[in-house]
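Structure request: DUF397 domain-containing protein, Actinoplanes flavus.
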Amino acid sequence: MQHVQSVDVDWRTSTFCGSNTCIEVARIGDSIAIRDSKDPQGPVQMYSRDEWNAFLDGITGGEFRSLT
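Returned structure:
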């Protein structure tokens, strides 16, 4: 994890979050960044586009449904 200055970063949260605390995602260069919305100055996890796309494919394919 690393700390990323978020001055010029377009952080996004899911519209499904509502008033809950969620993760936020942003594209930074060629990477996808994820952070905790409760701690915007805290650590950020960085993933390559391939890693992010594999994760999204797993989500849309229902691979993680058993975790909820």
